[in-house]
Amino acid sequence: MKLETDPDVRAAFEADASGLRMIPDAVARPRSAEEVAELLTDSSAAKRPVTPAGGQTSTTAASIVDAGVLLSLRSMNRIIDIDIAGRIARVEPGVMVGDLKRAVAEEGLTFAPDPTSEDECTIGGSIACNASGARTYKYGATRGHVRALKVALANGDTIEPRRTDLEKNTVGYAFAHDPIDWFIGSEGTLGIIVEAELSLIPAPLQVTGLMIPFSSEGDALAFVVAARESTDVSPRCIEFFGELALKIGREADDQEGWGKDASAMVYVEDESPESLELWLALADRSRALDDVRVFASDAEIRRARRIRHRVPSAMNERGSRGRDVGGRKVSTDWAVPYRRLAEAIDIANRIADAHGVERAVVYGHAGNGHPHQNFIARDADELRRIEEVVEETLREVLRMGGTVAAEHGIGKIKRKWLPLQMNAMQIGIMRAVKRELDPNGILAPGNIL
Fold first, then answer.
1. CA 381 to CA 28: how far, in whole Å?
2. What is the pTM of this model?
């Protein structure tokens, strides 16, 4: 397996969506599982670090490294097989999520997980960080849609864990029942995914999207709770846009002046043909403003997604401006029980105010109690103060029964906050699994642990 050390090649893999830059010692670009296994065999013997990467859309620096080999799996991008009757797809790890969706759409099927970066992120990367997205509210994260994996271990051996269909099992410790789950969300630290077998679902016949404007963020967040607890509607996503996020979203909108009196917005999607009037009635009862916007066709739903996706893309652009002086975008993905989301956002804003930091742009998966806070650090000092705000916020989130990371994983950026949530025993058990599967510690060093 050839290792490329040309400076230009190495520099092409130095950055992901985290805002950090790390130049690897070498880059490997395998085209087969056999080449991956060969690289790992040699690297294990040499105790040479190997960090896998797909589309490098990680916000936590999980897909970059400043020592050892950056293993790019982009060239392993075959859709091996689509079993229409069985609703199964077999793919290599470098297949883009969006490409898989388009391929199976021709057969009336879809792959349910919908990360925001689906046209830039790979299946392997999505599995490695258990990616999710707006429709996670209905369909869950990637984990539940993975049937089987082929994984190259640190020593070059290949295993093929498969999810069981058992309804009852009392053999041994529960966490050892399905080894497939060790690798999903492991961020490349336990093995390299070289093939995946995925579950597909029938594509919905109709989807209705609604942008529902509110005069205050409090009213919008109260509506989120009402929508989640309603017995009249069945949303597949419930997305919140605070005032600053709504302002950015309007930049990608082609309907000038819509929601001009709104300070917040909730976007929902529903697959029930008869849902529209029920949603409008719920919005009216929840003090929504009058100009609810309806998206009824595939083209209109794509337009709504472009408006939503404008928020993270704009924040990435803003964050890149401070990179040369130690700044970057700082994004959180904490979550709390959904009923406490308004309280958590209010506390987070007050913490930012107390530290003299500009309030974050807040948007995201409110139906799961999971917002994104995006801060912009314009230099190294502001980055330090923002990270103090984030840590103080995370401590409050944990007191509410929340989590420090709901979607993007831990990577390198958030590992310092892992001990806030996990005690020494939990971390020790993770280290024991890591030692068993990667005794020389060569896989994705610095990610998670």
1. 36
2. 0.94
